[in-house]
Amino acid sequence: MKKSSDGIGIMDKPPEPSPDELAKRSLNKIKNKIMVMSGKGGVGKSSVSVNLAIALAEKGFKVGLMDVDIHGPDIPRMLGLSGMLEASADRKLNPMHYSDNLSAVSIESLMVNKDEAVIWRGPVKHGAIRQFLSEVAWGNLDYLIIDSPPGTGDEPLTVAQLIKDARAVIVTTPQEVALADVRKSISFCKTVKMEILGLIENMSGYTCPHCGKSVDLFGSGGGERTALQSGLKLLGRIPFDPRVVQCGDAGVSYSRQYADSPVSKAFLEIVDQVAAALEKN
Amino acid sequence: MKKSSDGIGIMDKPPEPSPDELAKRSLNKIKNKIMVMSGKGGVGKSSVSVNLAIALAEKGFKVGLMDVDIHGPDIPRMLGLSGMLEASADRKLNPMHYSDNLSAVSIESLMVNKDEAVIWRGPVKHGAIRQFLSEVAWGNLDYLIIDSPPGTGDEPLTVAQLIKDARAVIVTTPQEVALADVRKSISFCKTVKMEILGLIENMSGYTCPHCGKSVDLFGSGGGERTALQSGLKLLGRIPFDPRVVQCGDAGVSYSRQYADSPVSKAFLEIVDQVAAALEKN
């Protein structure tokens, strides 16, 4: 029999749990899992994920933010986090810490060169996302917010397969082209049997900073219409505010900086709606 | 030996060419292939693809528009095309016709229920995109514009592998989070050895329709800065105009409807820049 360096037979060691088993153990310590998805890119999905996570954390919940957008990971920049993940005592990876209540993981925090493209086909991405669960020391969480890339491809499919009790929040902008893609997200959730908590209409109207008059950049009301048609709850409408973009670029918390803005108030209402929808279950 | 119904031995028929060979034959009849890509979603990549294709077609070129965004195909709606692809005499699929000079293909034109999600892992998508080339009767074209989904995943990788002489145009909005993802697109093109024709900065500034004053919705100048830093050509800057969104939703040609607008002029300039960049080669 082979001997390891400490003289104990390797065969005597208990077998390593499988990655699926390890992922399950991590998930057992997390109460609520919410995947933020969108049919179309650029509807502000990552902004919504970040601001939702921050708002929940500031209410006192323990929150994890998992960025499963492998090709366009925006979460670290938006949270102002730039380091790499480090190993913990039990050889797991420690998530990055934004605050006492909010930790985050992204593919970017595993890459030395942040400008390098991740050119992976689907099955490799599946493995990476599973590692985000199996090898990260998330600890006990009230919420895991999962920021998914747009569409209904490998990443959201992997989340649906690994996290059976994940629920979806769908973000859209009000124009018809975006809404057509939202209907695909709804169809996706039905197919994989993922409950949808509701819809968020983002970039819904804009107030000119010079004259104070309202402009519909991407149309308006489309999210509400789609929610009605598909029997979903409209969790809230978030107006467009260029300062959300600026804060995201600078890695600064918008809701802390502009606590009294209409956008921040919309987020707080959405958090209440989400919490209420979860309590019903 | 088995006999077919007309009495001729099946073995006498020449072997069916492989899908790769068929794709190659289609591509041999197409002069210029341009993949419109972006690091981030929602930067108006599909709008740019559509308007670029229309502008080229109106200049008298024969243009094909291939929508390889499998999970969020927007091209048919934007062109106002809703039918299904039909088989031609030689058992190939006829692309949809927008005008004499512009034809298009999208996964949506193969689906009966347009709201259904396509939940496919990478390798299946590869096969579908190859069929867009091998089984579609594109005919002789001056330009094939390829609208790719955001990021550096399966779809652009498949395009790079199947269309060796494809060149890239990268679309971005001016904010830093978008630009971080653009650098990933540049890294992707270097890795797969795809020439980059240049960068387009979209949604670059906005003029309030009420007071006429200028607002930077997504910041401004970031595309120019990134082009400079990475030694790429800036092909043009397109201002934000909500009517682009409205036209896209309605399937109406923006450049026909608003020929004198700053956006239409920006597109014409970009077409000239693209043509000039291609002539140099």
From TrEMBL, chains A, B:
Family matches, as SUPFAM superfamilies: P-loop containing nucleoside triphosphate hydrolases
Iron among keywords: yes
Chain positions recorded as ATP binding sites: G39, K40, G41, G42, V43, G44, K45, S46
Keywords from the named record: ATP-binding, Hydrolase, Iron, Iron-sulfur, Metal-binding, Nucleotide-binding
Region (Disordered): 1-21
InterPro entries attached to this UniProt entry: Mrp-like_CS, Mrp/NBP35_ATP-bd, P-loop_NTPase, YlxH/NBP35
Keyword ATP-binding: yes
GO biological process: iron-sulfur cluster assembly
GO MF terms held by the record: ATP binding; ATP hydrolysis activity; ATP-dependent FeS chaperone activity; iron-sulfur cluster binding; metal ion binding
Pfam family, one: ParA
One cellular component term from this protein's GO annotations in UniProt: cytosol
PROSITE patterns (alphabetical): MRP
Coiled-coil residue windows: none
Function of the molecule: Binds and transfers iron-sulfur (Fe-S) clusters to target apoproteins. Can hydrolyze ATP.
Entry similarity comment: Belongs to the Mrp/NBP35 ATP-binding proteins family.
HAMAP family recorded: Mrp_NBP35
Subunit and interaction comment: Homodimer.
Protein's UniProt name: Iron-sulfur cluster carrier protein
Organism the protein comes from: Desulfosarcina widdelii
